[in-house]
């Protein structure tokens, strides 16, 4: 179960205005937990730019 954070609402509000949101920050603060959770609710594409296949998306 994910802890609801204020950032969750901010990201969701931003996605209403923008097509994409990048989450950046220090290691182990919950970025990789937050992004897919929001993506599942919005039927969104989640890309992890540390993954070679995701970086190649769009080529």
Q: What does this entry show, briefly?
A:
47% of the residues lie in helices and 0% in strands.
Give me the number of helical elements.
Answer: 3
Instruction: Describe the main β-sheet briefly.
Output: none
Which quaternary structure do these chains form? single chain
What fraction strand?
under 5%
Number of domains: 1
Low-confidence stretches: none
Overall radius of gyration = 12 Å
**SSE order:** HHH
Alpha-beta classification: mainly alpha
Number of strands: 0
Average pLDDT value? 84
> What overall geometry do the principal axes of the alpha carbons give?
globular
- Please give the alpha-carbon distance between the first and last residues: 35 Å
Question: What fraction, in percent, of the residue positions are helical?
Answer: 40-55%
Could you name the key traits of this structure?
about 45% helix; 3 helices; about 60 residues; mainly alpha
Q: Describe it for me?
A:
This protein has 59 residues and is mostly helical. The chain has one domain (6-55). Helix content is 47%, strand content 0%.
Topology:
Layout: H1 6-17, H2 31-42, H3 52-55
């Amino acid at each position: 179960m994910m802890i609801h954070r204020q950032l969750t609402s901010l990201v969701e509000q931003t996605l209403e205005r923008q097509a994409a949101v990048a989450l950046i920050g220090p290691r182990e603060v919950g970025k990789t937990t937050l992004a897919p959770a929001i993506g599942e609710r919005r039927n969104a594409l989640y890309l992890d730019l540390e993954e070679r296949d995701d970086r190649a998306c769009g080529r």
